[in-house]
Amino acid sequence: MTARFPLCRTLLAHYRRHPGQLAMTLLGIILAGALYSGVQTINTQARDSFARAESMLGGQQVDRLQPATGQQLDQDDFVRLRRAGVPVSPLVRGEITLADGHSLTLLGLDLPTLPPAMQPDAGVANETGTLGGSFMQPPWQLRLAPDSAQALGWHEKDRPRLADGRRLPPVVIQSHLAPETAVTDIAAAAALLDRGHRIDALLLPHSAELPPTVAGGYQRINAEQGLAPGELSASFRLNLTAMGLLSLVVGLFIVHSAMGLALSQRLESFAVLRAIGVSRRALVTGVLIELLGLGLIGAVLGLAGGVALADLLMPGVARTLSSLYDERVAGAVILTPHAIASGLGMTLLGTLTAGLTTLRHAAGVNVLAPAHTAFEARGGIKRRRQLALLGIMMILGALLLWWALNGPPGDFLAGHRLIAAFIVVAGLLIGSALLLPALLDGAITLLIRPAARFGAERAAALQWLLADTRTQLPRLSLALAALLLALSANLGVSGMVGGFRMTFLDWLDQRLAADLYVHPPAASVVDIQRWLDSQEKSATVQRVRQLDSKAGDRPVGVRALPIDTLTQRRWPLLETIAVPWQHLEQGSLLINEQLARQLRKAPGDSLTLTTPKGRQHVLIAGLYADYGNPRGEVTLALAQADQWWPTDTGTTSLMLYGVTDHRQDIAHTLQQRFGLSEERMIDQPSLRHRAQQVFERTFAITRALNALTLGVAALALLSSLLALGRWRRAQLAPLWAMGLTRRWLALASAGQILLLSLLTALLALPLGVALNQALVALINVEAFGWRLPLHVFPLQLLGSVMVALLVAVLGGTLTAIRLWRMPPRQLLEEFRS
């Protein structure tokens, strides 16, 4: 053991002589760890928030009751069921707006009747308050999680104000509550939310029986049939994980490149150490300790950077999950032991993986290693062929799996199709990265022969330039592979997002064609529609209903539309049977693309729909796109829905067409005449703007991580070029001695980097298009349920090439300047060795 400390000092002395390599190695580890740890911290925070939300509401042990007619629940339902011996508990839920503009979900619970599964986690059972009254007595208590209180700046005993000036009950900070959610007594919640006697849900223990005397009037929603918190957004978080892993791989390419360069300079030292008696085991142990030390330092610093990155991105992720999936996530980052262990563990594992080559050479170093440098090129060719063969096999495997995913859903992929889609993408990316050195070598070889046409002197210089470029491939291949991955990922993701934006905006223009949308109370719908029909003779008024039902055992939304030429024109269909709208008028239905994939249904199939009139077996007349909706949905003719559901069930909206010039006047009149609030009316531009905001927010995080990954890849190439300076000096010294100027050598070196970057960018173009197709045809379909058309943007392709050239110009310029300014004395020193 004591002999290993001098050995470790000897090994680390290399970095004292080459601090740039140490900086590059640590930088790669830190960047890889920061990007991966940041994403994992976000995902861990989201999972923790979802687990708290699920446990607070009883998880899979608490069912819900709703009237079979779909009407609003009130206290009479609660009293009736309790008198019948049913152990239900009322729940009031709503959003409150605070004085500072923040919103908060408010839950009102009835403590004495709370189901046992909710009592320990809600943090309100069997507790008496200490703030001037109990939980169930004025002034009540407002309980919320520590992270929520911290984000809002609240402390114990505070009584914050609402936007209307009313004060909330005294704050009590309680662990295990869901984020962005406050819990209080049902009486206080009903008053704060202006609910009167209305309640939002009746909770029932899953094990409790529903007596036949009341079972007919209520529909029981089993806990197992609902979506658990976080289930809808699982695919979104999986996409973040995939981007984090890609960033980790690209960052570790920097580490591998730096260690490979250091290895080429340390083989002689390894051989000397072996020659003076250092055992193979001791040498490997010393290198392993070095790797672990560097990895630990980089992992800790990377974890700190990851927390900072998560703190920067977390508010955007929380807003995305809230607006798109209606799922609450704490906006403040709290570092958990799991996130720490995951970040440190993956970064250390990646560092050891990147250093495997160094360990292997340390274990098998030959005492006569310096005499075998002539065989380096031959070994590089053999290794390049092996990597190319492995890359071809990975690409073929990915294409085979892609073909299987495009076929009918098979049992062997059931439940794992999204993971399989990511494996396809990973296979294409990694296979292409492995194949890149061979492709670059082949492309440069093809350029050598045409170079002979430029005259003897110029041809000799060009041929040497190309041949010398080939010799640099082994040392630059990892950095170029990182650039290839980042460029293709950037191109694929940008193409997918751009195509989605085009498709989404076109779809919005068709679906959001009305000039004004009105959401009146159920009791006012008929009067408002009658008044609009009488006052706006030139306008078209459509009544639309939104309901809840089940398709088989799966909860779905129901949309009811009038079947007229206006609806047919603005409701594009993806697949249909013959004359679909005629079938819809006769009682058939349409389903969105998400539900069709979930249930494996197609036009012409039958669907069982649960209604107050019983189960209806309905023909599917067509499929329609429903971008941004995480739920399955069916669309019926309005007349058919009115037959199956009472008119006071669900929500009803009125859509006005042909009132573009005076929609604000109509909204003002409705507000004055019928007492409608501004929240119940929205014009088409505002609604479209809101939809676009949700879209931009959804992909903001992906774009940010994508840009960071591209930046890391550019840094990988730049750092590799800077670290190659010492090796390149030995290669160029003989040419300088033969009469070539340092200016010519500097420009030649910059040209070589430009050539390699240009070839890499050109190879990234087809890979980026293939990745774009995989994202829209595989990832989107499996993650979100909808398929997008492929869009290729020529300006994005050109932009990717320009980015690669910009990186090459920056790196080539720096290396050229260093060579240009190099004193002749340093070039002469190369002839000593």
UniProtKB/TrEMBL annotation:
Source organism superkingdom: Bacteria
One GO CC term on file: plasma membrane
Topology class, membrane: Multi-pass membrane protein
Pfam families hit by this protein: FtsX
Alphabetized UniProt keyword annotations: Cell membrane, Membrane, Transmembrane, Transmembrane helix
InterPro entries membership: ABC3_permease_C, Membrane_comp_ABC_pdt
UniProt-annotated location(s): Cell membrane
Domain ABC3 transporter permease C-terminal: 243-362, 706-824
Major localization class: membrane
Keyword Membrane attributed: yes
This protein's name: ABC transporter permease
Phylogenetic lineage: Bacteria, Pseudomonadati, Pseudomonadota, Gammaproteobacteria, Oceanospirillales
